[in-house]
Amino acid sequence: MAQRILVVDDVAEMRRLVWRALRAGGYVVDVAATVAEALKMDPGGYDALLIDANLGPERGADLIETLRSRDEAVAARCLIMTGGSLGRLPADVATLAKPFQLGELLDAVRELQQPGTPAKPGERADVPADADAQPEVARPEVARPEVARPEVAQLLGIIRRLRARERHDLADYLHDGPIQELAAASLELQLRRGAPAGPAADLVQQQVDTAARSLRGLLDEPWPLRPAQTSVAEVISARTAWLLAEPPAVDADLPGGPDMGEAPGIADIVELMLLATETAGPPGRAHVTVRADPSLLEIDLTRMPDRDDQTAGDPATARPALGGLAAALGADVRAELSRRQWRVSLAMRR
Prior knowledge:
alpha/beta; Rossmann fold; Heat Shock Protein 90; five-stranded parallel sheet; five-stranded mixed sheet; 10 helices; elongated
């Protein structure tokens, strides 16, 4: 008896193409566009459920958790089709990255039918969540609340949450728009392809898949807002690399230095220092040193151009920007701005 599969995807073209691919593989296939529509179809009675990670305003993971509350074993029969990291996915549910090959789709479905075998086709689902799902990690801890300026930490936290929201909105747009369209185009090409495939079709297929992977990189690569690093230096380097020609050299693991709870907040300040000294020219290189004692945090930033024929920038632009940053942080700032090298020292109470 043919196995029954339910495909849940809010994009009609993807539902149609996945339906065609699975029917050609010998499966009996039904489709649904929303969580409510799927729940009306007795989804627990299917041999496999292929669920899109992003169902418009809903999440595929929400459907899985609803089904899990009725039958714990249903998770082993679910496969999440994902166009990128859109929040925490269930660690015990298989995933399949879009765009996928026909063989990958069929292999993923077959994996679901092997009891006791962890189904992890495509990519792992236990990656760290987006930063907006982990506000407690992103919030800096103040070591000495009786002397610190709480409004600074609060403002940095607000900025971090705003950027996390922007990333989440970008993820929704990319998943519902170009990634879905490229995934559908890839599947359509594969379903129309004859055997053997011509070189022109192979080239178009390669171009489509490459474009989709590039877009997925915006969602899957660790962003500065997701500090999975294990040292203050790693957090600073990851947070600020986008402003420079290469990640900065960071010396922050010093005796009596800051602990990891303060790392996101310190990285915020270094990032703001780099923004204040950013020039209109190509990004340069930088070295950062962090020193701390129980009451004082000091950050030294040395910035230089990436090439010998470049200058560090315009001091007339950098000085007022640094002064404004210091005033906002309640910090003292010193700057030595020469033609080839800028040295900025910022000190503030902890």
